[in-house]
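Recall the central idea of this unit: under ordinary conditions, the amino acid sequence of a chain determines the structure it adopts. In this exercise we apply that idea directly, starting from the sequence alone.
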Amino acid sequence: MPSLKPVYPLYLANRPEQPNQDLEVTDKFSGEVVTRVAMADPATIDRAIAAAEAAARPMAEMAAYERQAVLNHCVARFRERFDELAYSLCVEAGKPIKDAKGEVTRLIDTFRVAAEESVRITGEHMPLDISERARGYEAVWKRVPIGPCSFISPFNFPLNLAAHKVAPALAVGCPFVLKPASRTPLGALIIGEVLAETDLPEGAFSILPATRDGSDLFTTDDRLKLLSFTGSPDVGWALKAKAGRKKVVLELGGNAAVVVDRDADLDDAVERIVFGAFYQSGQSCIGVQRILIHADIYDEFQGRLVEKTRTLVCGDPKDEATFIGPMIDVGEAKRLENWITEAVDGGAVLLCGGGRKGAMLEPTLLEKVGKETRLNREEAFGPVATLQAFTDFEAALDEVNDSRFGLQAGIFTRDLNKALMAWDRLEVGGVVIGDVPSYRVDNMPYGGVKDSGLGREGVRFAMEDMTEIRNLVIRRRPVA
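Accordingly, the structure predicted from this sequence is:
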């Protein structure tokens, strides 16, 4: 069985430092303190940003094969440390071990794709002779690194959502400072351990656990040219307002919907929706929250869905049989329990679940949920989903759009025209046909509209945000 170290350092300008042991990391199932982590103060953050600024030119001058070698080293070391990474994730995030192993696999995929993309950052030749005055002129453009980047990652995917910032930055040659979530810092620090084994230029990376109050420089410092934040909408938009002139990428929340049309394969849809609603205790911004079911199949589908949900095993995330582990803390579980009570008091019908013990909340399904309840309007971010019937497919799409969020949506239909209609009309960043909105592959463009964010992740698309286009114009003159 893997184990955790008693203390973990922060990483400042590529090097480990242990100035303190101020951050306690708990086992989210037992509540016990399992390790301690160094915290960065504002002076340390300032030093890290200065080091990143100094590293901008050396990073930009790295050859493509050198950047690729760093990423390939990470892939190899993550494979060697697979069990350790999965165990640390299971403990610090309370993530069932099967889900934790899946996230380590995605970490490896993300770095592997970045390694492939690092050697094919291309530009374009562009003729300029669109009119007589431009005769003899032509241009070619290329992408260059934007410069030092600031990354703030969330607690729910501590490895892979950090990887979606770190790996593209390394692929294009941008130095960075990363603030991992204080409740789940270990995965990012292990990434730091691996990066410290490479020959990256000094200052190429710093990984700095820090309090929210002490980390303003991640957002406000003008030496940083890009801020990439993943987390709650309220925090994300507030950071954007303070970010100044830097580019901002926001991956925020959602209350994702799935539509089950009457021609769907019900067995398949039940399996996928139960997974989409309840994997890693529903703590995913694209977790299934709203389930719209055609009236012709509603009763049968509802019965199957409730029956399947009741079979899910809740308990210790270290147990391979566990499907539902704890939420990130008791406060979050209580919040969602209150939302369920509010919905039931307003007339909703509790179909299954609803019970809570500490941070453990049972997988919960409700129907007849009031339109204006928080459970319908806001992001639940836990193991809860609501059911409602529809008779008209286009009206169901309108219902999906009736949200301040727009991250992803899932559509179970065999009708190609309806699938394409959903792609045209849904106000979301991604439409998934024949599956749940919770589905993501790490090379695809991923992000939302409305309150769900700004910009796109996915390795190649993040690399575009972390680069700028530099144009070269050439005037050709007749040879004498």
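The chain has a mean pLDDT of 97.
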